[in-house]
Amino acid sequence: MTVSIDTAPRTRHGSRPSSRSDTVLSVRDLRVAYGGDLRSPTVHGVSFDVAAGETVAVVGESGSGKSTLVNAILRLLDSSTAVGGEAFFAGRDILRLSERAFRALRGRQIGFVPQDPTASLNPVRRIDHQVYESFRESDQPEHADRQRYPALARELLASVGIVDPERALRSYPHQLSGGQLQRVLIGLAIAGRPQLIVADEPTSALDVTIQKTILDLLDSLKAEFGVSILLITHDLSLAAERSDQVVVLNDGELQEHGPSRETLTAPRSAYARALIRDIPRLNLDRFAPAISRRAEPEAGRYALEVENVQKSFGAGEHRTEALKGVSLRIPPGRTHALVGESGSGKTTIARLVLRLLEPDEGRIIVDGQDVSHLDRKDLRSARRHLQLVYQNPFNSLDPTYTVGRIVAEPLVRYREGSREERRRRVVEVLELVGLDESFADRRARRLSGGQRQRVAIARALSLNPDVLVLDEPTSALDVTVQAQILDVLVDLQVRLGLSYLFISHDLSVVRQFADTVTVLQHGVVKEDGPTAQVFADPADDYTRALVASIPDVARTATDLPVGAVR
Amino acid sequence: MTATLTLSRGPAVRVPGLSVRTIATTLAGLIILVLIAWVIAPSLFTSHDPYAGVPAERFAEPSAAHLFGTDQLGRDVFARVVHGTRPAVLSALLAVTIGLVAGSAIGLLAGFFGGIVDGILGRVLDIVLAIPSFLLAVIVVVSLGFQTVNAAIAVGVSSIAVFGRLIRSEVLRVKNLTFVESAYLIGGSRLSVLFAHVLPNTYRSVVALAVLQFGLAIISIAGLAFLGYGNPPPSPDWGLLVAEGKDYLYRYPWVVYLPGLVMVATVLSLNQLSTTIGKDK
């Protein structure tokens, strides 16, 4: 049995299926209360249907209750958590079934694809044994004969698109890539011939090009077996592209429910409208007005120059060449983005620019000064012009410090100003990032992710640097918070003339935010140039693949949905 | 942004307000408070003289007049326990202080600077670990004199390795967190990063260990006193109480068991407090 992955353009999923008799899952007024008291529920009033062969997406940010909802349906919540409402599957209310009766469904008629494939398989057992385990548990007639397991396992892996299934079966999970592991997990889910597959953010832990292939695989399995999919995601545009219906949750409440195209073009709820406005790929010109207010940069001067830099790690047979001759230039007051998947070398460049690493070959020039091989003392004074904002705001601030102390620390270390002057500078800088003076006395660990990232930016600004290196500054944040942080960054660039080296894997954000972009793959520059041009008309195959992996709900960048704010 | 599969964990038994852990911690706290009171003002808790006995009242059973009974010389056992608390606690404090300060210094430097510093200091810790603590105690006491203070020093030296190892591993963990690296980028020197960022983030677990070691020190010092490597009689050392009473264990058990009970209660309370401190991390 072979399956060909459908690479033809997807048809628009516009209207709802007319027949209601083939509803696979019917959720009615589902309520979940972690405290055990249904009168104050964490999630409430959720109702939707999943028809046979349909994909329904549940969309929400972190804390919206989408994982809770799915766990409630799959009966994976603790016994102290109260669940109310009904969920009908194959004619029975699965919330009222005994655990034993439901076990017959879970993993068999209802399949599950988890979020993080690298953490979802037993790391000390080989893949083939784990596949056999799921065969043993399944009640499909073809899985009755144990002698046939090896052959069946090979077929299964081949059907989910794994090249060389024999080798994959003999491997341990850590020897396979994230994408391959996710295919294995999808295979395990499909092996039981389920009617419904629940996929909990199945692609968020994967690189963008791999994401597309996994979602294509799910679509093709849907076409072949007529299975329905309940897709959980935080990405509304992805949901709209891949699903027939969309359910939007916020704070445990249902905000919007309807056909995906409608939700995107004519959202009814205020939350959905706000969400759409904040999604980068649906609002690519969001920062255009602000960006146009920037001053013209001086010609011939560059805030940061990277000239033909090479860097390798390790020696002998373990030697990896992280960068093989990368160059880029950022004019003052402009944003240059570095795009690439994991292993491309973008983090290495960031560390080289900050001189946390030394380049093997090539030069790094910050505001005219060659910093490539400076010693520690000179480096320290050079670092006043160049600061870094990290990806994970939960690790990059000392949890024992107050905000004021964190932001003032650079001034303290460089012995700038008196205590009074430092205090004033802290307030000034906090105001620049949109934080009120009262934040100065709060402990960092009590802040939310977005607030922490603002503090991190404020700290980077204390010494008035020329260049900020932003290493995926919004990847760990929700879409709405991401939009706020980007707003702050654009505003700072307009007001202070800062230059940014913006590292990201999110192409839509790059498109919104960056003037020029470099596309990296395996340490080699594949393409660089003005953002609009590179994305509209990519010259390189890899760039084309990256651009193609962006879910395209609106075909052109200017095709904005109704309700989006410019 | 991650949205992991969350499983809520409700407690198995739901008692409004109190949990087993809270009761245990409160009890432990009370016991420690009583002991502290005994250290500060022992005469408030007993009117009997721990040194002078009334031979006519020897081996009296526990009663209202003598809470823990009397020993072979007619001395009130409860009074001896109460007065013995101060030497026990102070010597244990000395032992833990030696271990904490020396061990933390070694562990901090070894973990932070790594390389050859870690190599040398690591070997120092290994040497301390290799010497059986009891043997070390005997050597120190025999050389310096038969006093509980010297036993305390010996116990302290043997605990250097425990503290050193713990703080070294905490430092290694914290050293690689992004905020430490960012401290260098904003102009921090190695020393400023060590004291301003690494130390404040690592001492919490050491405090929990110190409380635990305190209990162990009490037991170790009592054990050494039991074998004679501590203050000589008639000092009301806890270990000595057990040593002197062991000859009469079968006929007059309260002379050994009741002081023993106090020691056990002390150490258990300290362990409970240590767990509570550790959990709040």
Automatic annotation (TrEMBL), chain B:
Query: Which PANTHER family does the protein's record reference?
Result: OLIGOPEPTIDE TRANSPORT SYSTEM PERMEASE PROTEIN APPC (PTHR43386), PEPTIDE ABC TRANSPORTER PERMEASE PROTEIN (PTHR43386:SF25)
Give the subcellular location.
Cell membrane
The ABC transmembrane type-1 domain sits at 85-274
Which InterPro entries does this one have?
A: BP-dependent_transpt_permease, MetI-like, MetI-like_sf
| Protein name per the record | Putative ABC transporter permease protein
Q: Which GO terms describe its biological process?
A: transmembrane transport
Keywords (alphabetical) are:
Cell membrane, Membrane, Transmembrane, Transmembrane helix, Transport
Write down any Gene Ontology CC term.
Answer: plasma membrane
Transmembrane regions: 20-41, 88-114, 120-142, 149-167, 179-199, 206-229, 249-271
- Organism name: Gordonia amarae NBRC 15530
Cite the Gene3D superfamilies for this sequence.
MetI-like
One Pfam annotation reads BPD_transp_1
The way this protein sits in the membrane is described as: Multi-pass membrane protein
Q: Which family does it belong to?
A: Belongs to the binding-protein-dependent transport system permease family.
